[in-house]
Write a structure and sequence with these properties.
By secondary structure, this protein is of the alpha+beta class. It has a single domain, classed as HIT family, subunit A (2-Layer Sandwich), CATH 3.30.428. 21% of the residues lie in helices and 23% in strands. The radius of gyration is 13 Å and the shape is globular. The mean pLDDT is 97. The structure holds adenosine monophosphate (AMP) and zinc ion (ZN).
Amino acid sequence: MGDCLFCSIAGGKTDTEILHETEDLVVFRDINPHAPVHLLIVPKKHIRSINDLRPEDLEIVSKLIYTAKEMAGRMKINESGYRLFFNVEKGGGQVIFHLHLHMIGGW
Ligand code: AMP
Ligand code: ZN
């Protein structure tokens, strides 16, 4: 996936600040935030979209959500509240075709 931006970021090949990293995911700030806090939670594995999920991806999807909960606490937006969402395909607003979970909050 040589030309995939999020593979490059997840692989540490850009100067994007990584807020959190595990063996299978990374978290970084959205470059064009839609809220005071706007994070992207991204698997290192290249999965094109929610439409391409396979049964073996279930564990990473649950890790994305669990990481969102952990990051919400760290960013101190857990009590005020936040939204989690996936944009799916062009009609759903997906622009980067590497799976990512948006977390927005901090209003
Ligand atoms: P989506 O529309 O769900 O595909 O979301 C893609 C998101 O990636 C958008 O909110 C963009 O602002 C964000 N984005 C694009 N390029 C970068 C980048 N280099 N670093 C961080 N976020 C980015
Ligand atoms: Zn990718």
